[in-house]
Amino acid sequence: MAELRSNKVKESLSAGKIVTVPMGPMSSELIEHFGPLGFDGLWLEGEHGPVDFDNIPDLTRACDLWSMTPIVRVYQNEPAVIYRTMDLGALGICVPHINTKEEAQAVVEATKFAPIGMRGSFTSRQGIGVDDYLNKANDQTMSIILIEDIIAVNNLDEILEVNNIDIFYVAPGDLAQSMGLTGGAGSPKVNDVVDGALKKITAAGKTAGTLASENTLPHYIDVGARFFSFSWLPWLSDGAEGILKTVQASN
After folding, report:
1. What is the rounded distance in angstroms from the CA atom of residue 130 to the CA atom of residue 212?
2. CATH no. for residue 149?
3. Catalytic residues
4. Rounded to an integer, what is the distance from CA 124 to the centroid of its chain?
């Protein structure tokens, strides 16, 4: 029988390591280029991007080739959306706009089989050929919730009471908007709220995550966050800028 694939992001976090997960436009071909770079996982965008049920299998297969954890951000906190995404190959689920303890518990219910939750009983693509998959899968699946509204920050103490959430991820963009500061991610007022939420998550013994860049990463590590997503698009723009400057200097 086949062995159940391990969740590299969960393993690294359990070992006390800091995890960085690239996010941005992805195809199966591009994912294979990310493979040898050494990242534990990739963020596949199903809320603000084209990732959907018809391409999740191939995208997650490409991640599997390099033992990278495929994390899919779904577009709503709906059980069938969550467990169908997992059935098609996701090992991690990221759910947006979790504002209450009850909403966080609903994520657990959808991502975990009994006795932890009530995920629909089906052998995922990750479980093909795996003996007793339904009783093993909970160890390797990952639940990430987005704290991205000021109401969620205000309710954070209660949300943190929910068990089996692997990462409490503070998202600055929507948080700024909910604070009446549309486009204000990175402003001092929003940064203070983000830092406060990350510190509270860490103090509760939970794993905190957020969006970072090369410049902000050291600060958020000092604050206590251990899981980071970041856009790879600046690599493209920086490289293009360097090439074009060289060409223009020679013209």
Report:
1. 36
2. 3.20.20.60
3. 48
4. 19
**Of residues 168, 155, 115, the one with CA closest to residue 138:** 115
Distance CA 100, CA 164 (A): 15
The whole model's pTM is what?
0.95
Structural domain includes residue 27? yes
Find the mean pLDDT for residues 35-41: 96
How many whole angstroms separate alpha carbon 233 and alpha carbon 22?
Answer: 9
Domain presence at residue 43? yes
* DSSP code per residue over 63-132: HHHTT-EEEEE-SS--HHHHHHHHHTT-SEEEES---SHHHHHHHHHHHS-TTT--------GGGTTBTT
Which residues are paired to 210 by β-bridges? 170, 228
pLDDT in tens, 206-251: 999 999 999 999 999 999 999 999 999 999 999 999 999 989 988 8
Asked whether residue 86 is assigned to any structural domain, the reply reads: yes
